[in-house]
Design a protein that fits this description.
This protein is mostly beta strands. The protein has 9 domains: 215 residues, Galactose-binding domain-like (Jelly Rolls), CATH 2.60.120.260; 101 residues, Immunoglobulin-like, CATH 2.60.40; 105 residues, Immunoglobulin-like; 110 residues, Immunoglobulin-like; 103 residues, Immunoglobulin-like, CATH 2.60.40.10; 125 residues, Immunoglobulin-like, CATH 2.60.40; 123 residues, Sandwich (Immunoglobulin-like); 92 residues, Immunoglobulin-like (Sandwich); and more. 3% of the residues lie in helices and 50% in strands. The chain has 4 helices and 84 strands. The strands form 18 sheets. Strands 1, 3, 4, 6, 7, 10, 11 and 13 form an 8-stranded antiparallel β-sheet that branches. A hairpin with a 2-residue loop joins strand 83 and strand 84. The chain is elongated and about 180 Å long. The chain starts with 6 loop residues before the first helix and ends with a strand. This is T9SS C-terminal target domain-containing protein.
């Protein structure tokens, strides 16, 4: 339906829509179109639904009285983008959000439909649904039908929704497609229907949704409706107006206006508007009267039930009816007792007060109590006496007790009535009294002068009796004295405890105003008749005696109560489980009265039949004698709100000692997390951890409990993106879950599942929270224990591995990585960890652990942490060339390199503890220098040279520390050494020192020398080894000569490694060979002739002439 247009363009637009809808509605031919909602034409991009409705932008807001509502943190809005293939105008846009959102069209009437079909256009993401048939309650986009009910209090509508299945046929890439809804039978015939569309919050549900052209078609007839169909106004006083109640009326396909006619005694009007009357007319527009709220009130003019019918009619259609009922009432009043006799008092004095209880029914106005001359009344014991008092209607209907006294101002006999009145009702209490003249001298007056307690037990009296006393013209105090200790009394006017006297009352100006003296008998009282008295006396006045009589049974009155009650537990407004105790008594003068404290109930029936209030009282009757046999008393807790209470159930029967049964109950809800979340570590960025089950235990809960979480701030997460997710089924995870209490036990004992979903590197913390309207704090609040969620993430693992090269330079090694310029983008690690060890293999169990930052030893071997014993982390960082020092010259080292990522790219921050290491490559084996460890002194040089028949040994030190001596050692094979001479060291010095020695008897052939440095503490170290060849010509022999193939050269020592040179007689070198351990020189290939064979080098050479056969 178009809102505004100019005549030409409007007709063209209407024609386009008519053609489009004709095509769209081909499956519905034969149906009268009930409504089409194409979202109007005037919307702006992103306009809020409530704003658009307020401006009457929708097709059916003003025209048919429809309502349009949205819900959700990200609510659907009007959009003019991506127009539909139908009306091609505005559409409803559901944005991609982590919250469920909805759009509903309400106040739709299907009352006049006999058949119905519902279609709409849907734009959904590609592959949103697995087939063209979309299940009811699916996890992506739902369509729901709501059936409305009307509140008689205010006419508001509440919808009960159910999910509907539908078909949807989009294109291959998603987009606009027609959707046809499968409607249930109860769709038709309802005056209030809502159609709701919901985009569901689901981690897998991504993308936007749009709807347009919602169309309800069907076969329609004229109809009027009214809801609810009955109203009950209860009791209403004649001549007054009841509280108004509400109905909703509507009409469709009407040919005339809608008329409402109220029965006699009832009045109607539009809700909150205009004066009440007996009829009302609502104008129809295009045959439609939208759903309209009507107020109805009961105005009784006579007592009795008034049943009538509110008729809703329109020409040519069946009328709708609302049944009305109400009861007109008139008040009644009653007073107990109906008469009071106050006896005799002196003029100017006040009698003892007496009680009058006023009760009423249907009283709606205040009640006035008026005393006649000589009498006065008061509401309570703390009020002053006046001539009249006022009681409220509520007090009167509940029953109210006031007090009356006789206080004459003149002598004579008085007989009159206290009048009790309210509009339309009255009653009275007859009152009499005798006023005597005041005596001229001191006097004392008591009334009555006899108190008979009747039967009492050895324990005492069951009741408290009283007399009044007053005195005048006194010159001394008034003294009340009991005749024995069994009589206890008190001045009730002054309060206080009962005593056995005497009580002294000081007169004021010679007068003691009327006092009420309460009297009890207390044990032990011997069996049989009891006689005693209380004497009122004062100097100069005639004493007055109050005689006290009783008859004692001689037996003690005893109440027995047994049983312990556990704490009661329930929810507000629901009775707790029943507990019980046993009650008995003996020699009782009265039945046992059981009084429950507030919020508790007592009963002799386990079903508590007829008991509706707490703090009630019950009576446990005596048997035909004076005993109470063992009786079960049932107890339960019925709190009106969430509270905790402890008190006593009082079991009393005077004069027996009352027995108290302690009771305690609570209806305060309680909730806790039974087990703690275990911190999750090493979860890779943008993945999810395994879930953990946390058990939620709650007691005394009626309302659903929402579990959510609050995220601790982190500078790497400025948007406060949630890092943890919750689930009820361990399948679908969201930011909050709702737990529903057991409706029988009012408890929750259910697991929720928590998983970690990191979006940044480092630590994440959240605190679980809950919210439930059962708690006094209805806001979100923390659990207080086991509510902490903690986790740590690591970076993604590198996918490329670089191979390091290692170059050894004495005590250092240079580790180099040949990486491209954009190595991190190509999958290489953002950093590298270098581990050095003397072990040639790194077991898999000893490799670096993800999430561990190895703080290295500043590129020095042997310092810093070890990833495993003997494996030192010498470097961690992004450098591509690293020099590692601290190496031993004589030790072979093995280096292992590991790629890792730990940089948060959003902030370019390297996060310690977020390292993710790539599995290591085969270790690079770095050979060491196979030599002894160097001297602890700084050795500049060490040399051995042949000098004639000796070997000159020279060494130079740059500095020495605690150096005791040097030993020069010699070896034939380079493995087994012997000391040949010793030289004293310089102790400690920073000066350069040169040492010279000679080996006077060197070994013939190849030999080895080294230095052994010995500290003053006995520790020692060795220099590098040097080798020399020394030949003594007299000890060198070569044989056989002539030779055919192998020439043996005997040097008188080791020949291994000694050079042997063969030359011809002209000096030309034929070959050069290194002798082996067998001292053999191979001459097989030589021609027959004479050759020169030379062994040794430099001055240590020996030459022999050898003939080759």
């Amino acid at each position: 339906m178009e809102k505004t247009y100019n005549p030409v363009e409007g007709q063209r637009r209407w024609l386009q829509l008519f053609i489009a809808w004709s095509v769209f509605l081909l499956p519905s031919l034969g149906f009268a179109q009930t409504f089409v909602e194409s979202m109007g034409t005037t919307a702006t991009e992103g306009q809020a639904v409530d704003s658009y409705e307020a401006n009457l932008g929708f097709d059916n807001d003003n025209e048919k009285g429809f309502t349009y509502t949205v819900t959700g943190a990200t609510m659907p809005v009007l959009s003019v983008a991506n127009a539909s293939t139908g009306s091609a105008g505005p559409n409803i846009y559901f944005a991609n959000s982590s919250n469920t959102s909805s759009f509903a069209i309400g106040s739709v009437s299907t009352a006049g439909l006999s058949t119905a079909s519902l279609t709409f256009l849907l734009n959904a993401p590609a592959n949103a649904f697995t087939s063209s048939t979309v299940a009811a309650g699916n996890a992506r986009f739902r369509v729901q039908l709501g059936i409305g009910t009307v509140s008689p209090t205010n006419g508001n509508i509440t919808y009960a929704y159910s999910n509907l299945a539908y078909t949807y046929a989009p294109g291959a890439t998603g987009g606009w497609g027609a959707a046809t809804i499968t409607l249930p039978p109860n769709t038709v015939g309802n005056p209030l229907v809502s159609i709701r569309f919901q985009r569901i919050n689901n981690a897998a549900n991504t993308g936007d949704y749009r709807i347009d052209d919602v169309t309800l078609s069907g076969t329609a007839t004229g109809v009027v409706t009214a809801q609810p169909t009955s109203l009950d106004f209860g009791d209403v006083a004649v001549g007054t107006n009841s509280t108004a109640q509400a109905v909703r009326v509507s009409g469709q396909n009407l040919t005339g206006n809608l008329t409402l006619t109220a029965p006699a005694g009832y009045q109607i009007r539009e809700f909150g508007s205009g004066a009440y009357g007996s009829s009302l007319a609502l104008a129809a527009s295009n045959g439609i009267v939208p759903s309209t709220r009507i107020q109805v009130r009961f105005v009784p003019t006579a007592a009795g039930v008034n049943n009538g019918t509110l008729v809703v009619s329109s020409p040519g259609v069946t009328q709708a009816e609302v049944d009305l009922t109400g009861n007109g009432t008139v008040p009644t009043l009653a007073a107990t007792p109906t008469s009071l006799s106050f006896g005799s008092v002196f003029v100017g004095q006040m009698s003892t007060s007496q009680n009058v209880t006023v009760s009423g029914t249907n009283v709606i106005s205040n009640v006035t109590v008026t005393a006649p001359t000589g009498f006065r009344v008061r509401r309570t014991a703390t009020d002053a006496y006046t001539q009249s008092i006022v009681l409220t209607a509520a007090e009167t209907n509940a029953g109210f007790t006031f007090q009356a006294v006789f206080q004459p101002t003149t002598a004579g006999s008085y007989s009159s009535a206290i009048n009790i009145t309210t509009p339309n009702a009255s009653t009275s209490v007859a009152v009499t009294g005798q006023a005597d003249p005041v005596p001229s001298g001191p006097y004392i007056s008591v009334n009555p002068n006899l108190l008979d307690f009747g039967t009492v037990s050895a324990t005492g009296s069951a009741q408290t009796l009283s007399f009044s006393v007053n005195a005048g013209n006194l010159t001394a105090p008034l003294v009340l004295t009991g005749s024995n200790n069994n009589i206890v009394f008190r001045d009730a006017s002054a309060g206080g405890s009962f005593v056995n006297g005497p009580i002294t009352i000081n007169p004021v100006s010679g007068t003691v105003s009327t006092r009420t003296i309460e009297v009890q008998l207390t044990g032990p009282i011997a069996s049989g008749p009891f006689n005693g008295s209380i004497t009122a006396s004062s100097a100069g006045a005639t004493s007055q005696v109050v005689t006290i009589t009783a008859n004692s049974t001689g037996n003690n009155s005893v109440i027995n109560a047994s049983g312990n009650l556990n704490q009661f537990s329930t929810v507000p407004g629901v009775a707790s489980a029943v507990q019980s105790y046993t009650l008995s008594g003996s020699n009782l003068l009265q039945d046992i009265t059981v009084s429950a404290p507030q919020y508790f109930q007592v009963s002799l029936d386990p079903n508590f039949t007829g008991i509706t209030t707490t703090g009630n009282t019950l009576t446990v009757a005596r048997n035909s004698g004076s005993d109470v046999t063992a009786t079960t008393v049932y107890v339960r807790f019925l709190p009106p709100s969430a509270l905790t209470s402890s008190s006593l159930i009082l079991n009393s029967s005077s004069p027996a000692v009352a027995q108290g049964i302690p009771v305690a109950g609570t209806s305060e809800p309680n909730i806790q997390v039974a087990n703690a979340f275990q911190e999750v570590r090493n979860v890779v960025l943008n993945t999810v951890s395994a879930s953990q089950a946390l058990t939620i235990n709650a007691q005394r809960v009626l309302q659903p409990v929402t579990i959510s979480k609050i995220l601790s701030t982190n500078p790497l997460n400025p948007g406060n993106t949630p890092q943890f997710e919750l689930s009820l089924d361990n399948v679908t995870f969201t930011n909050s879950v709702v737990l529903t209490p057991n409706t029988t036990t009012y408890s929750i004992n259910q697991p929720i599942y928590v998983r970690y979903k990191p979006t940044y590197l480092g630590t994440a913390q959240s605190t679980l929270q809950f919210q439930s309207n059962d708690f006094s704090n209805k806001s979100v609040q923390s659990f207080g224990a086991n509510d902490q969620l903690a986790a740590r993430s690591i970076d993604v693992e590198p996918t490329q591995r670089s191979t390091a090269t290692v170059v050894r330079n004495n005590t250092t090694a240079t580790v180099s990585f040949n990486l491209p310029a954009n190595y991190a983008q190509l999958g290489y690690g953002e950093g590298r960890l270098i581990v050095a060890s003397t072990n040639p293999q790194l077991p898999a169990a000893n490799q670096p652990l993800d999430g561990n930052s190895y703080q290295t030893g500043n590129q020095t071997y042997g310092q810093g942490p070890q990833i495993a014993p003997g494996y030192y982390a010498v470097y961690s960082g992004s450098n591509q060339t690293v020099v590692v020092d601290g190496l031993d010259l004589a030790t072979t080292y093995y280096f292992y390199t590991f790629e890792y990522n730990n940089i948060d790219n959003n902030f370019n921050v390297s996060v310690i503890g977020a390292e993710n290491y790539l599995s290591p490559p085969v270790p690079n084996t770095i050979p060491g220098i196979i030599a002894p460890s160097p001297l602890p002194v700084t050795l500049v040089s060490f040399s051995a040279k042949v000098k004639g028949n000796q070997v000159a040994l020279n060494w130079v030190t740059a500095s020495e520390l605690n150096n005791k001596q040097f030993e020069v050692q010699r070896s034939r094979d380079g493995r087994s050494f012997e000391t040949i001479l010793t030289r004293e060291g310089k102790g400690t010095t920073n000066a350069t020192t040169a040492y010279s020695e000679v080996d006077k008897k060197p070994l013939n052939g190849l030999s080895y020398y080294r230095l052994k440095q010995i500290d003053t503490d006995g520790s020692s170290s060795f220099s590098s080894t040097v080798a020399i060849s020394f030949l003594n010509s007299g000890e060198v022999t070569m044989y056989p000569n002539p030779v055919e193939d192998l020439l043996t050269i005997d040097l008188g020592g080791s020949a291994e490694g000694v050079s042997a040179v063969i030359t011809d007689m002209t000096g030309r070198v034929i070959s050069t060979q290194k002798l082996g351990a067998d001292s053999k020189l191979n001459m097989t290939s030589l021609q027959t002739g004479t050759y020169l064979v030379t062994v040794g080098e430099g001055t240590a050479k020996v030459t022999r002439r050898i003939v080759k056969k």
